[in-house]
Design a protein that fits this description.
Blueprint: E1 2-7, H1 10-20, E2 27-32, E3 42-43, H2 51-60, E4 65-68, H3 71-76, H4 78-84, E5 89-90, H5 94-101, H6 103-113, E6 120-123, H7 126-134, E7 140-144, E8 153-156, H8 159-171, E9 182-186, E10 191-200, E11 204-206, E12 211-212, E13 215-217, E14 221-224, E15 229-232, H9 239-259, E16 265-275, E17 278-285, H10 293-296, H11 304-313, E18 327-335, E19 360-364, E20 367-370, E21 373-376, E22 380-388, H12 391-402, E23 410-411
Parallel strand pairs: 1-2, 1-4, 2-3, 4-5
Antiparallel strand pairs: 6-9, 7-8, 7-9, 10-11, 10-16, 12-15, 13-14, 15-18, 16-17, 18-22, 18-23, 19-22, 20-21
Helix pairs in contact: 7-8
The structure holds adenosine monophosphate (AMP) and glycine.
């Protein structure tokens, strides 16, 4: 088979490494890819929103399956465009990717089908939203309706902050048209967990759980980022919680989407908060998480292509997922200044240390190949993942491997997986 992967981050590198293990695959292409992906795939310089060029490329290369990684092309309908051209694609169609593309849609869906989530109201003008804040309890959470690079969520402790937030989202359009509508919701407390699942429109199969670290600095301080590190599995995601989520959240979500005439085929990422009143959905994503994929996929024993084809064909009921009985930790190496201002173009050393090691991975996120070598080319540069027999050993291995890599302005959190120490 010939497989095309769409995207250029650490997530797509992790997908590419899993695809490479499939005996069914003879050739991998990636658009646009990065310097790490280029080691396993032939990359072409086409951007993820250039649908016509992607379709043309897939036809020309006789691609058997296209895997769409990021949210923007999924929400924009790349899968539909590929299917209209008679090509097979893994990922939700536009009418299903709205589960991530519109927070107002996903909240309404959860309310309609009784799926546990934070209480909320939707607003399409600033005046009503501001009036609502007069009587609302603080802290409170403001969410721009549409995609905002993971930055459209504001947690406000005071009414002044919240009023400013409403203005930023709805009047100043800080997140562009994503802020034409907004959701204001109850602030939940608890431990967060990310659960990735495969869906074929009817059946859902649950992958091993993970936990992300979104803030830029240690002790969850600093600005929100795309994710500074992950571990899998989450020891806080117990069998009891898993049973509850399967019955009350996962299958009901898939059934609800089918009932709405929007069958979801692809990956649903459930962002959950484990509250005192039980697990609640914080958000849905219509794709693998980044950097969740970097700890979940290396632990998956299945042939990823078989699972993805089952999602496309509606035969996922015949597949059972299997994960290694171990743990993985991913530490993101960023450029100092991320997520605000940072420099690019610094030479990266030590990448070769990962070659030939089975339990260590260096996933490229923002890198570029130049004549002098591979250089930094983004805020998040690399994701260093290591496995181990348990979380503590995996974490020690990951931090050991972080030392193998060097580049100017290298920055990472030193406490990824610290929560593990709380487990008795
Ligand atoms: P989202 O993009 O919806 O995942 O939100 C980004 C982050 O904001 C989440 O990972 C949570 O840490 C936080 N968050 C979102 N919704 C809530 C909520 N209702 N209560 C508390 N924290 C939240
Ligand atoms: N790591 C969170 C996300 O991919 O949205």
């Amino acid at each position: 088979m010939k497989v095309l992967i769409v995207g250029s981050g650490g997530r797509e590198h992790a997908i590419a490494m899993s695809v490479e293990k499939s005996p069914k695959v003879e050739k991998i292409y990636c658009v646009p890819g990065n310097a790490g992906i280029a080691q396993v795939a032939e990359c072409a310089d086409i951007k993820v929103m250039e649908f016509d060029r992607i379709v043309e490329f897939a036809k020309e290369k006789e691609i058997d399956l296209t895997i769409v990684g990021p949210d923007d092309p999924l929400v924009g309908g790349l899968v539909d465009a590929l299917e209209e051209a008679g090509l097979r694609a893994f990922g939700p169609r536009k009418n299903a990717a709205i589960l991530e593309g519109s927070k107002a849609f996903s909240k309404e869906l959860m309310k309609k089908y009784g799926i546990p989530t934070a209480a909320y109201e939707t607003f399409d003008n600033a005046a009503d939203a501001l009036k609502y804040l007069d009587t609302a309890k603080m802290p409170i959470v403001l969410k721009a309706d549409g995609l905002a690079l993971g930055k459209g969520v504001l947690i406000c402790n005071t009414k002044d902050e919240a009023r400013n937030g409403v203005k930023e989202i709805m009047l100043d359009k800080k997140f562009g048209t994503a802020g034409n509508r907004m959701v204001i919701e109850e602030f939940l407390t608890g431990r967060e967990v990310s659960v990735l699942t495969f869906c074929d429109g009817k059946t859902i199969r649950v992958m091993s759980s993970a936990q992300d670290h979104k803030r830029a600095q240690d002790n969850d301080e600093g600005l929100n980022t795309g994710g500074m590190g992950t571990f899998s599995p989450s020891p806080f995601y117990t069998d009891e919680i898993d049973r509850f989520c399967r019955e009350k959240i996962y299958q009901p979500t898939v059934d609800a989407m089918a009932k709405e005439g929007r069958p979801f085929q692809g990956v649903i990422f459930f962002g959950l908060m484990l509250t005192e009143d039980g697990p609640k959905v914080l958000e849905y994503n219509a794709r693998f998480g980044d950097p969740e994929a970097q700890v979940v996929l290396p632990r998956m024993k299945n042939d990823i292509i078989e699972v993805m084809e089952a999602c496309v064909d509606g035969t996922l009921d015949r597949i059972s997922l299997e994960f290694e009985d171990n743990a993985a930790v991913c530490v993101v190496l960023a450029s100092k200044g991320y997520p605000l201002k940072y420099e690019r173009g610094f030479l990266i050393s030590g990448l070769e240390s990962f070659q030939g090691r089975r339990s260590y991975y260096v996933f490229h996120a923002g890198t570029r190949k130049t004549s002098k070598g591979i250089v930094t080319n983004g805020g998040r540069v690399l994701g260093v993942t290591a496995k181990g027999p348990d979380l503590k050993k995996a974490r020690a291995n990951a931090y050991k491997a972080v030392e193998w890599i060097d580049f100017e302005n290298k920055y990472c959190r030193s406490d990824i997986g610290k929560a593990i120490d709380e487990v008795k």
